[in-house]
């Protein structure tokens, strides 16, 4: 998931740069946005794996 968002941003930026005949500005911007999105997804995945199952109010104590 992390690498795919970076690759997608770079590829889309490359295609925009080729279409608009610009310097690699869109590739850099969209690559950076892909990196940020990948880091956000990685953080969400790591936080989701660290969560325990919710405990009941009655945890078996008398």
From TrEMBL:
Pfam families: ATPase_gene1. Keywords: Membrane, Transmembrane, Transmembrane helix. The keyword Membrane applies. The chain crosses the membrane at residues 6-36. The keyword Membrane applies. It comes from the Bacteria. InterPro entries: ATPase_put. This is F0F1 ATP synthase assembly protein I. The lineage of its organism: Bacteria, Pseudomonadati, Pseudomonadota, Gammaproteobacteria, Chromatiales.
């Amino acid at each position: 998931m992390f690498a795919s968002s970076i690759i997608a941003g770079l590829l889309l930026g490359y295609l925009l740069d080729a279409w608009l005949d610009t310097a690699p500005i869109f590739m850099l911007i969209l690559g950076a946005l892909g990196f940020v999105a990948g880091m956000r997804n990685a953080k969400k995945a790591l936080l989701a794996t660290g969560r325990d199952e919710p405990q009941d109010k009655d945890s078996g104590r008398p």
